[in-house]
């Protein structure tokens, strides 16, 4: 390994990502924030990921392209195809002292093999529950096979980090590894805060000051629970519970959702200060997804002082305190979701109290403090691999 590595500034990290910046989502934004933190501490980082002509945002740090192909039926995403000779030469020349893989794809498998041959420590970070996606495409029977493939991948790594304790517990139960710890997520409190609420912006969508807005935030894809969301809205409508719906985000299922929920306000994709304004202008966030490992949107809503009604699933269970800062409902329980939302719609004092509790909880999530734990994990793994250890 050469010199003894004891400081973050001595780290040379090769990061492998299936999507670093070509489509914006919570996972790749977390990776870019991590790289920014590491570079500010003096570490050297090279990122190996698919590249496209018009990415969603500028990559943080040095990005090396790897071969990839568009995923059928989800062409906005790309599937890494392995390590090209050029990428392998670049990796050899960079000579990392730690490898970080962020998705169990073909390229990451190759990179893990490369690192193991050289005794380089490997950290894997888990960002989404890939095995659950098949449920939304009629292929749920493949879930055990996917779990087995992922188990083999993660057990070849030296350690695994998950974004929430609830997700870490799932990984332990699935026997994905023996060294599993937490790399949480942070929230930018300059962007996400109650003061960003904007009545004029709400009114531009036909939403009055006294209307109670149920919000959805995220990419508009079926695996985010859009069917559960829309079925719940139907139940509220049938019960004549007054409310307005605000959808923030975009994606391939937008047309489906527009047809499914006529009269809904669609704000489209928002980012930065515009996103903070959009979230703060909601009254309650409804997050029915069971595929999250952390739930960035849940934390952002909490920071804006909103109560959150969420599926009792990985991620949200580690953020929302049931009946304190929101409600955790059994996944898919349409009637229970509707009743929880109805309570918030009809009880503004409870809505305000639970929103304030969520905002208080969100103050614990500082990005630099959280990313420092990853850097400390790198150093621990390097130390454990040291021949002098």
TrEMBL record:
Domain named Glycosyltransferase subfamily 4-like N-terminal: residues: 25-190
Molecular function via GO: glycosyltransferase activity
Keyword Transferase: yes
InterPro entries in UniProt: Glyco_trans_4-like_N, Glycosyltransferase_grp1
Signal peptide annotation: none
Organism domain of life: Bacteria
Key word Secreted present: no
Keywords attached to this entry: Transferase
Gene3D superfamilies reported in the protein's UniProt record: Glycogen Phosphorylase B
Name of the protein described by the UniProt record: Putative glycosyltransferase
Protein species of origin: Caenibius tardaugens NBRC 16725
